[in-house]
Amino acid sequence: MQEFDAASLALPGIRELQPYQAGKPIEEVERELGISNIIKLASNENPLGVSSLVKEALINKVNGLARYPDANGFYLKQALAEKFAVKANQITLGNGSNDVLELLARTYVTNHHEVIFSQHAFVVYPLVTKAIGAKPVAVPAKDYGHDLDAMLAAVTDKTRMIFVANPNNPTGTFLPTEALEEFIAQVPKHVLVVLDEAYYEYVPSEVRAPSLAWINEYPNLVVTRTFSKAYGLAGLRAGYAVSNAAVADLMNRIRQPFNMNELALTAAMAALQDEAFLQHSIQVNAEGMAQITAFCDSHGLSYIPSHGNFITIRFGGNAADVYQKLLLKGVIVRPVAGYELPEHLRVSIGLPEEMAAFYRAYDEIVAEAQSS
Ligand SMILES: *Cc1c(COP(=O)(O)O)cnc(C)c1O
Q1: pTM strictly above 0.85
Q2: Could you report the per-residue pLDDT of 282-307, keeping only the tens digit for each?
Q3: Residue 80: CB within 6 Å of ligand 1?
Q4: Residue 90 to residue 214: CA distance in whole angstroms
Q5: Does ligand 1 have an atom closer than 6 angstroms to the CB of 100?
Q6: What's the gap in Å between 98 CA and the centre of ligand 1?
Q7: Domains plus CATH for the chain?
Q8: Is the CB of 240 under 6 A from ligand 1?
Q9: Atom of ligand 1 minimally distant from the CA of 97
């Protein structure tokens, strides 16, 4: 009898993948280290939690959960279309925006194609590319951000998709509007440009790109956004893509019919109504960002200026050690060695008291190192 060999039967691209490394969950640290009162600044979540309007809508929906959700997400698409002045048939809903990123790749990319993204860019881009067996082309970053000229120069006849994260995670780098539009205009039409705007809401409105309006001019542009960050719904999984209607039509053919569940649809609808919560989230983030950059400056720590709800700080050769010591003091941050940033740690912006716990823990670590 032949042995069953799960790995050798799997697609080569999938065999070589490393599982996605999420931020360490609070419960896991409690379990492993036996400590409580843990502060998690590791996954760019909204520290304000869930808006009260969303909570109320979710509670009211509970009795309806025996039924399937609306497979077309009619009302959510309608609300998004109205808010952003696009057509409902341009929208593809996803189980988080990770879902639509994967749908895009599965709709357009085969194992004969190349997919371009930047060094230090969001890990899901190489992940979906490799899963298909396509060739990942990681273009070296410039000042930790996307080098758009080099990315353009990397385009070949085989290129089918370019991922651009703006702002990028984990670096927080941001591309100015003019440079971005010039880039999109020059990308040949056999290539889709996927502009990932997961942190769009945190970008001050006066510097945001009019990316959705660009879709009319550049039909190969797709913009993805999420309810996971500023809207505070990471646990529910709700994201979407806005594209040319023909692209959305194709993506909708391969998505799972109920890929956005009833609670996610309900919460997203309610979240769009709660402008006050959104503005408060943005304000708390801006204040926390000003505070942590001042902390870094006063402690001789360099950082990558960030337009997101997180900041990536350089701790040098002992970054892994600082991570472990913070963990033992009950503060979870995010190592980014997997992003070729072994000397940095990413810290999400939390509530003032959570940030204070981080500052205190770091000061203790420095003091302990000096006294030993
Ligand atoms: C957080 C994040 C997302 C959003 O992921 P969801 O699946 O919507 O939770 C997408 N892109 C980037 C760059 C991110 O950091």
Answers
A1: yes
A2: 999 999 999 999 999 999 999 999 99
A3: no
A4: 13
A5: no
A6: 6
A7: 8-49+276-371 (3.90.1150.10), 52-274 (3.40.640.10)
A8: no
A9: 8
